Amino acid sequence: MSTNDVLFGVLPYMAATLAIFVGVVRWRREPFSVSSLSSQLLESRKLYWGSISFHWGLTIILTLHLLALIIPSGFEWWNGAPVRLYLLEITGLALGLWAAFGITVLIVRRFTSARVRRVTTGMDHVVLLVIAIQIVTGVWIAIGYRWGSYWGTGVFIPYVRSLLFFQPEPEYIDPLPWVLKTHVLSFFAFLAIFPFSRLIHIITLPLQYFFRPWQKVIANREPPADEYISNEPRTKQFN
Amino acid sequence: MRVRAQMSMLFHLDKCIGCHTCSVACKNLWTDRDGAEYMWWNNVETRPGTGYPTGWEDQEHYKGGWQRDKKGRLKLVLHSKGGGVAKAFFNPALPELNDYYDPFTFQYGDLFNSPPSEQQPTAIPISKITGQPLEISSGPNWDDDLGGSDIFAANDPSMEGVDDVVRAQMEEIERVVFNYLPRICNHCLNPSCLAACPSGAIYKREEDGIVLVNEEKCRGWRMCVSGCPYKKVYYNWNTGKSEKCILCFPRMETGQAPACAHSCVGRIRYMGVLLYDADKIASSAALPDDELLDAQLDMILDPHDPQVITAARAAGIDEGWIDSAQRSPIYKFVKVWGMAFPLHPEYRTEAMMFYVPPLSPVMSSIEQNMIKLDIPDERRDFELMDELDKARMPLEYLANLFTVGDSDRIRRVLRIMLAVRTYKRRQSVDGVIDEATLELIEEVGLTENMVEAIYSMTTTPTVDDRFVMPPYHREMSLEAIGDPLTAKGSTGFGTIKPPRRGP
């Protein structure tokens, strides 16, 4: 087994196993520790510029990556016309630069604001480093190895699919330049630190908010016999 | 009719001396921790003033509470559900720490470790967050007793609508006038902090109406902090969770009044049960501004009404609670005597803490800018009655705080208080109550029995009169959750998980 096999054939499974198992255990046994750990109260001006750019830039780019994985044929069709290819690539690059701007502000903020430093842990530095590597290599690929959305469907999509179907084919990655390898590896690092860091807040997206009534009343006693049971969610009602 | 019970507190502002004992009792009990130092679940503000956090009543800035849209529907000022989730990465309506204050301590070690020198050593103030030296420039009661000042009073949103001449008089240094406003969480019937929480971590307890944050479910979205118009939910910067006043439910469950009420030096606080109709919450909160207060007071049900009692029993309310509601001092003040109002009913959260407005029996000017001192003693009380509009604490200001700008309602309450005072003065000083006084109490809608009842509840109540605590029957509610005997015979040892910040 070559180094490439270990890095791109074994490591992803180890990282995913960690993410899922530790994530579930932490969510269930240590719910108190799951929080965005926002520091907006302590520093708000820099966070405005950093957080919005960083989060939205990354969220949209990740969604595009995911779309490419789900419907690669759609991307191939879209990129059939050069104009559309350029449009997609420019959009991707712009989002990458937006996220890069965001994380720069966030890193500066974390090191310069005394109040934010007070709530900074070692793991926060690791998180910032891993994501910074991802963004930098991503932007680098967009500029240096152009039209990634075009050739990526022939290289990365089959690779990721091979992983998902438990028949890893790390050979796809072997001939690629180190920048691309780093981009992939840093994602596995991201997965691995996910359950051990504040990154776990990604899965707290509150979709249930859309389906609950505005008010919530919980009874701490045996509910009365008739239909009036207030701790059951009643979506149509106000409270 | 869907009857629910609410534990409610009443503040008799006429008796508050602004000693902050309540705040200190609360702080020592609940918020003396890292990340919670800046939280004042109970605070006492000087009014007029900007309060804590600075300018909390400015909802154009902080976006707290509810609003009625053009179609008459009830909406959060802060966000729609989609908007709330979209603003997760940065909440523009969140107060910053500087809107509260940088919690500080003093470097006491300097006093002992300083080398010999000509001067006395001093302990410099340092930030409790960063540990760095800091120049203290604000605090939770920074404007204490500066009610008339042009910095704090002038920026009070409730001064809007107060006559310019009156404002100028209030700000004159010799005539500075202020009163105190103690505030805790209002444990609203229609809490907007709860509605704003995307994680669904906040809930209202059905049996006593206390609004709580489940910190195991809180994910630190901070929308509750902005959503609460009273700014009584605080974000713990250390644990990344929101915290708020819990109305000392561990004390109440063992039959004790909350610490703030229990420690009150002026004995201004009353505790009791109110029964209300939960079916009316949404509809009454959506009414136009001028109908809000009446609608909220109408939701409170008469605990002596047989129909209400039947409905309360059907809703599973304990007999002890119904009995407690019948003896509730809050019910007397709010419904029987009509002397108390919630704070800022126009926020539409249906606040359940009530205030008796303060009576300031000092006239600013009865004649043109002159204080009239030559009124004969026997006329003085009556003169005040007729001239309440010129009271040094303007009715319009109190009306902006408690009655959505309706100063007639404030005048009515102050006239009741004055009438009781006049009656008792005649009785105890003169030994005889004259015709004019009897006419007076009739005019304000009181009987002699009511005067005596208001007087004794205001002036000479015992602890048991002030705090009518219902039986919680915690042992029974525990049975509903699990078998209380599971731990019988065990040593009582277990693991304690202190609330620690996540990695």
Model description:
The complex is a heterodimer of chains A (about 240) and B (about 500). Chain A is an all-alpha fold. Chain A is built from eight helices and one strand; from the N terminus they run H-H-H-H-H-H-H-H-E. The longest helix of chain A has about 30 residues, at about 80-110. Chain A is globular and about 55 Å long. Mean pLDDT of chain A is about 90; it is low at about 225-235. Chain B is of the alpha+beta class and about 500 residues long. Chain B has 22 helices and 14 strands. A four-stranded mixed beta sheet of chain B has the order 12-1-14-13. In chain B, strands 2-7 form a two-stranded antiparallel ribbon. Chain B has a two-stranded antiparallel sheet with strand order 3-4. The two termini of chain B are about 50 Å apart. The interface between A and B is large, with 58 and 64 residues. Strand 1 of chain A pairs parallel with strand 8 of chain B.
